[in-house]
Specification:
The complex is a heterodimer of chains A (225) and B (200). Helices cover 38% and strands 10% of the residues of chain A. Chain A is of the alpha/beta class and 225 residues long. Chain A is globular. In chain A, 44% of the residues are buried. The longest helix of chain B is centred in the last third of the chain and has 22 residues. The chains are: A alpha/beta (225), B alpha/beta (200).
Chain lengths: 225, 200
């Protein structure tokens, strides 16, 4: 809530509200005048939603992805292991060793074996509880289903107070709403068609690209499927 | 800055995916017609990417089922959605031929090639090999796929368009929500009952 509103802020706020009301009024009028037919362009809305989220990743998360890649590269160059535990929201199958194009830079089994100065990437923070005490470097991808600093208050009230930020050295936000679905559909009370699988995979391969490039500059190469 | 290059490529190829929307509409119409005629919609993806996305997924529709789990129940005028990362893998072509022999219609999400040509409705994920789009000097092989991401976007546009056709007929297809949402478990339980009762 804004406190001590200045006169200039008050005039600005009220003029914005006025313009918004005019716009809403014109919109409602246009709806009343037209016969609403088969105008549910849901596929296009989905793609536009994905494009918007990707732009946010590019604008707001890329520097953190590069920072995370730096941690991974340092870990590898010092002889430590790189682990990844990405469940649920990540497109399943992308981490398979036989996935075409997968450079297989991460160990995906036995994440609990991660030791001091190893690097762990995860979107499931409960599996890395206690890792920071063991001085494991943890990078977290936010997910719709786990609280983080951007989750609207009360949205995940049955998910406790545990937050991704509690266990990760670097948090990369996926910018997918807590509902996961991104398309409002007439007659359905939560948005449909999830974005997290697509966006987590994009974030994963963006990070992988950075790590592979950097390690190649140091003469470290991987076995690509 | 290879990460930025990867994101730029994803954005560029999403523009190509956008050019498929007319075909997506045909797929959505075909699926909704089939479901309303009591036919089944099967999904298969040998790498598991799209199958895990479409079937039983929160924020998704209840009407998709696994080809691998229920292949023997496939019948005349059912639909198979096949997602492939390569244009001509024999295993994928065998699945198509098998489903065709059982009387199913085929929707593919794949690169252009023999697989897309064998489909009734073919959604093309791009105009180049999307399984390894990044290149680093000193590494012989390119790496990092976009195909899973683009196939998933196409799959969800098909689900969205299917929903749009249902809505245009005054019907709402059953959908799931995250179990983690307040009352998510109860709502999903109701959704499963609704789907069994209505068939969509």
């Amino acid at each position: 809530m804004k406190q001590n509103l200045s006169r200039r802020d008050f005039l600005y706020d009220t003029s914005i509200a006025g313009i918004s009301m005019l716009g809403l009024s014109a919109f409602l009028q246009s709806c009343a005048e037209k016969e609403v037919g088969y105008t549910h362009d849901l596929a296009k809305i989905y793609i536009e939603g994905i494009q918007r989220i990707i732009k946010q990743i590019k604008d707001k998360e890329l520097s953190k992805i590069q920072q995370a890649a730096g941690l991974a590269v340092q870990a590898k160059l010092h002889g430590n292991n790189l682990y990844a535990h990405l469940s649920g929201n990540m497109l399943q199958g992308e981490l398979r060793k036989d996935r075409p194009g997968n450079p297989n830079i991460f160990i995906t089994e036995d994440i609990q074996r991660a030791a001091r100065d190893d690097f762990v990437l995860t979107n499931e923070p409960s599996v890395v509880r206690g890792f920071s005490e063991r001085l494991v470097k943890v990078v977290g991808f936010s997910t719709p289903s786990i609280n983080n600093n951007n989750t609207p208050v009360g949205a995940l009230k049955n998910m406790g107070t545990f937050r991704l930020e509690d266990v990760a050295d670097i948090v990369i936000y996926c910018h997918v709403p807590y509902t996961d679905g991104i398309v409002n559909v007439e007659g359905v009370d939560v948005p449909l068609f999830p974005a997290s699988g697509v966006i987590h995979s994009l974030m994963y391969y963006t990070l992988v690209s950075e790590i592979v490039e950097s390690l190649a500059q140091h003469g470290v190469y991987f076995n690509i499927s | 800055m290879l990460g930025l290059e990867y994101i730029d490529k994803a954005e560029k190829h999403l523009m190509f995916v956008s050019s498929q929307l007319e075909t997506v509409k045909k797929a959505g119409k075909s699926i909704s017609d089939a479901v309303l005629n009591k036919n089944k919609i099967f999904v298969v993806d040998r790498y598991g990417v799209i199958e895990n996305e479409l079937i039983g997924r929160s924020s998704g529709l209840a009407l998709f089922q696994s080809y691998d789990d229920d292949e023997e129940t496939m019948g005349q005028n059912d639909i198979l959605i096949l997602s492939a990362f390569y244009p001509a893998e024999q295993d994928d072509l065998d699945i198509i031929n098998n489903a065709r022999a059982q009387g199913a219609k085929i929707i593919t999400i794949s690169p252009e090639g023999p697989i897309s040509k064998a489909a009734d409705i073919a959604l093309i994920n791009g105009n180049e090999d999307l399984n390894d789009v990044m290149y680093v000097p000193g590494i012989d092989q390119s790496f990092c796929p976009l195909s899973g991401i683009l196939n998933a976007v196409l799959a969800w546009t098909v689900a969205a368009e299917t929903t749009a056709v249902f809505l245009s007929q005054g019907k709402i297809p059953t959908s799931y929500r995250g179990d983690y949402l307040p009352d998510g478990v109860d709502k999903n339980s109701e959704a499963r009952k609704r789907y069994i009762s209505l068939g969509y």
